[in-house]
Write a structure and sequence with these properties.
Blueprint (H helix, E strand, L loop, with lengths): L2 E12 L2 E12 L3 E5 L6 H8 L7 E6 L2 E2 L5 H6 L2 E4 L11 H6 L8 H11 L1 H5 L10 H13 L5 E5 L7 H16 L3 E6 L3 H4 L4 E6 L2 E6 L3 H10 L6
Parallel strand pairs: 3-8, 3-9, 6-7, 7-8
Antiparallel strand pairs: 1-2, 1-4, 4-5, 9-10
Helix pairs in contact: 4-6
Amino acid sequence: MTPLLELSRIRAAYGGITVLHGIDLAVAAGQVVTLLGPNGAGKTTALKVAAGMHPSTGGRVLLGGRDTTGARPQDLARVGVCLIPEGRGVFPNLSVRDNLLMMTFAGRGREEIEETAYARFPVLGARRAQHAGTLSGGEQQMLALARGLATDPAVLLLDELSMGLAPLVVAELYEHVAEIARQGVAVLVVEQFAAAVLKIADHAAVLAGGRIQWQGHPDSSLHAELSSYYLGSPT
């Protein structure tokens, strides 16, 4: 499939320390690609480079075949790149409704944003007047997803969606992610722990030491590969 997002020979560094050593990764519309690996492997840096939030020191970022290397994050956001960072990124002292209201900058009306959010995540509708900081971790992650989807993204970048959440909640969230992809969005998911995301992924890559060590269709052989590349649990 033709990639909607492509990282080609991407290198990136912090100061004089190189953390990505020429990685190649591609995501097509309607596809879920997961980037797996241990802490410190460079996974989050790869997402930040794709979103324009960290500069590359080599290689190219392509969006729909167009070279967007070095583009500002706000410009990439305007053309459909949405990053939901680790930590959910909601405003805890604002209500659910006001968190969603802040996304009207993307050009959609409040009613449309709320209708879409509550249809996808009914629990948010029931808690629309509640402060986001009082929601459960899973509900906060749903709100973060709803806020991101309010921008009508073409590319959705997710960082550690499972962080701090119970397995059943993570499974439910990834069902939503799969549905988002089925609507034609290119989804790139960074995860340290693999089990839930591999159930919905079309393609997987293992990043270790700043290099892609393995990539392909996530089948049973991947679990053996994971065991050799990082010390986190592959299940």
